[in-house]
Amino acid sequence: MPHFLFATGVENSSPTVDHGRRRVDEMASCRHYELWRDDFALAKELGVGALRYGPPLYKTFLGPGRFDWEFADLAFAELNKLGLIPVADLCHFGVPDWIGDFQNPDFPRLFASYAKAFAERFSWVQLFTPINEMFVCATFSAAYGWWNEELHSDQAFVTAIKHIVKANVLAMKAILAVRPDAIFIQSESSEYFHPSSPKAVERAHLLNERRFLSLDLNYGHSVSAEIYRFLMDNGMTEAEYDFFMRQDLKRHCIMGNDYYGTNEHYVASDGKASFSGEIFGYNEITSQYYWRYQIPVMHTETNFEEGPKGYEAVRWLYKEWANVLHVRSSGVPILGFTWYSLTDQVDWDSALREDNRRINSLGLYDLERRPRAVGRAYKQLIAEWSEAMRTGSVCMMVPLGPCCV
């Protein structure tokens, strides 16, 4: 793996909505199945070294021991030919219909079998995100009731999170059995909850402990007493908790932190949370996550809607890049940066719940594959900064830290 990765990704969310009656496939919505060769060529032209990318799980994993690799074979062969490093994104917010949803206790075992089969077939792939944004997936599916199981309870959330993280852990172990030098870049949403009233302080504190839950379990980090009680009260057993605490996989991992303008929240006196916009920002929140787990970091997702003048997304890009440099200068080993995604997306303004066919101008390219202003700016940023980040010479401007070692 290079010392520093500039990356983008192809949006491959595929949750079900409307009580399972409709599956949202962002690869289809964004015409990637038609234009995948063009998309890879655009990524190469940008100068990125890596592409967050994975075949659609629901189309590829047809049943126990049954796989359709036709599209994946073509796509990954092209990535290899172009010299783009894939970060294999194996499960992005949805599972095949025959599995059902994240309440299914068989999901961890089944998904691990898929991860092993993928690693065996694409043995040259080294970087993996087994399950994308585990906390968001469990929250949207089982706490907010938006996707997949569409449940809205603490017990459903705990069930989802324990199954999702166990699936991630078992997948990592299955991949390591095939490729012992595999590296796992766990893309996860980095959150913070601000109390907007003295009456909200206790609730905000609990939410700020809960935001770590997926990574605590994934990395075998003991949770707080409040969160342990929350887990036990909502269906996790001591044996299940002990399973996570016995794992020792951190040495194979890079912590991917995703940051958007929606990652920070106000908590009201009634306990309800709403988006606050950026208050702390990526630097402060990523530092909190880093010092909790103390493993290398990568900025694995960010974007911003292009406004009428086209400058808003460019400003966000350079602001996030400044945050990456500040994280690095503070001594945190940060190994990469990602604008997500390569192209515009569709209906993310309703979190994929409404079929409005509304284009969200979040990409480096629009859906006609024309570069947006932020795409041109990112290409320039990569060209200007690649050598300095590769050699570590940027550290000459700041106090010495692990990034300079």
TrEMBL record:
Pfam families: Glyco_hydro_1. SUPFAM superfamilies: (Trans)glycosidases (SSF51445). One of its GO terms (molecular function) is hydrolase activity, hydrolyzing O-glycosyl compounds. Keywords: Hydrolase. GO terms for biological process: carbohydrate metabolic process. Gene3D superfamilies: Glycosidases (3.20.20.80). The keyword Hydrolase applies. This is Glycoside hydrolase family 1.
